[in-house]
Each structure stands twice: as C-alpha cells, then as structure tokens.
C-alpha cells in the first residue's frame, strides 16, 4: 500500500459508522456524525475507530506529547513529569528529570525511544530545556533562561540536530532560541529579522504546537492575546520572519491561534479560539495553501476551542483537532470539521507508521485504535 493510500485508509476508518455506543468521555468512542449515520448504523459489524485510554499512572496534565511510533511515545506535563512508553501504552515509565517537580513541562520533542528534549515554561529561570540520550535514565539541563522578561512557550526540531524554541516578546519582539547540536547547546538568534509584536501578543503554551516546523528550514509561530491573531513564518530557520493576520478571533488575552500544523511547506491548518469554558469560539479553525501568507476561515469549524492539531499520517486532506470538549476530524484539508469524540485532550500527534496519540488533563493519554 502506498503512503497516500495508507493515509486515505486511516481517514476512511475514522469516518466509518460506530457499531455500538455513542461518544463517551470515559471510553473515547468515536461516533458517526454523517447524515443518516449514527451508533449501530453500520453493517460491517466491526468496532469503530476510537481513542483507547491508556493508564498513565499519573494525575498531572500532559500538554507535551511526542509520538515516535505505534509503540513508543513520550509525555511531558505539570509537576516536572516526563513519562515514556515502549509497548504502546501498556506500561509507562516515569523518567522525570531529578529535582524538576516545581517545573511545568509543556513541550517535548523525541527523536526515538532514547533521545528527547523537553521544555519547561515560565518566567525567568522557570524556562529551561533538558535533554536525554538514554531514554530518560539521565538528563542534562542544556538551557536556563536568565532574562526575567522572557517566557518560553514551545520548541520544535527540523531534524535530530537543528531546532528552535520561542519566547513571548522581549523588548517588543518574539525571541528565538536556536540549537545546532540536538539540544546540547542553545543561543539566542538576532532579532533584526523579527517583526514587531502587537501590544499584549504572546504564544500559548497549551499543546506544544505554537511553534512547528516542516522540512529542513520552514517554521511557523502562532500567536494570540492581542488585537489580531497572527501566524509568523520563517524559511531560514528563524533568522527572518514574515507575519500574517488570521481570521481566528482575537482581541482578548484568552483568544487567538493556539496551534498550527503544516503537512508540507505550503499546506497548513490553524486552530484556537477562546480557552475559557464559558466563552464561545466561533471561527476556531483556518487553513492556508501558500505557506501561511494567507488564511481562510473553515466553512464548518470545530464547535469549540481547540488547542492541538495534527495531519493524519500520509494524508493530504485529513487532520485531527483536539480540545477540552472533544476531537474533530477534517477530510477536506481543514475546510469542514465534524466532532468524532467528546473526551478531553490538549494535544495530539501522529507517526509515520499510522499511529495517533493524544494526551491531556488528569493523566489522560490515549492511542487511536481501529
């Protein structure tokens, strides 16, 4: 089966009718929301694709997730917690860095089952980067922020050596940190090529997806909290940037673009909204077909705030978005979305071997089963 066919097959299973129960936050059952479809409407007799909850053994919130394969995944969360599985989520090993209990881990990037880089967020020295080469048995602190004005939110890697981290604006511009040796050392990039930030503008450390890369040089930075929700793009690993307004509502510290995903250097999806549970989030998704130069509102957006998004593996048209009130699926490149699960998740990630993982509050972690 070709890579494209694999992606199509996964999207098709997600849109298949459910056999039995409707969506349930505990079971993660995926429902069929197509006209005429519904629980029990299928004739094939097979169980519908669903998020299968895995027992992480933890009660912290996991906003950081890096899925390596169907068997291997890393989680990063509050109270300085890092977990790793090598058997598809049956067992989770606590591999948290020693002495990190006061830190808030919000993003993790893993290269395989042994090498990973994790970001702690916060003001001043609370923002730190740790690296492991032995599956979390030992960690090295490779960066500690010493600027009281900086607050790091997200991290991304182009390959196993080159990566970036981003901070909220310092002296009127977003700050970019760069590594060329797999996270062993870091340096602040010059700010000359960075556009000025809006008053109140910042990144949201909600899912580890406010800074994402595609290919060897392209990277995008998502913002909110200001008059306009924007996406910044760099094609030279963070040295120079362009910036574009998105149609996702802003104008409040709780609103904006929370996550972006690009399946290549051209096609992207942005999701967000208002993270307050009592506030509506219309126009919570947008798409780009030109590398982020322009954005178009989804015709049928997710029904509520979404904090994480990812393209399905090997698919040109299908993606998943997640948030506290559910999971949504698009099969037309982000133009229309439909809810397929009502469980609470903060972030989502898929792997080349067609595995998708999600994680969130109260130790929740799940893998998509078909």
What secondary-structure arrangement, pairings included, does this model have?
Layout: H1 3-14, E1 50-54, E2 64-67, E3 73-77, E4 81-85, E5 93-94, E6 104-110, E7 116-123, E8 128-132, E9 140-144, E10 151-157, E11 163-170, E12 173-179, E13 187-188, E14 211-214, E15 218-222, E16 230-234, E17 242-245, E18 255-262, E19 268-274, E20 285-288, E21 296-297, E22 308-311, E23 319-323, E24 326-330, E25 338-341, E26 347-350, E27 356-359, E28 365-369
Write a structural description:
- The protein is mainly β.
- It has one helix at residues 3-14, and strands at residues 50-54, 64-67, 73-77, 81-85, 93-94, 104-110, 116-123, 128-132, 140-144, 151-157, 163-170, 173-179, 187-188, 211-214, 218-222, 230-234, 242-245, 255-262, 268-274, 285-288, 296-297, 308-311, 319-323, 326-330, 338-341, 347-350, 356-359, 365-369.
- The strands form six sheets. Strands 6, 7, 8, 9, 10, 11, 12 and 13 form an eight-stranded antiparallel sheet that branches. Strands 1-28-27-26 form a four-stranded antiparallel sheet, with no helix packed on it. Strands 2-3-4-5 form a four-stranded antiparallel sheet, with no helix packed on it.
- The relative contact order is 0.15.
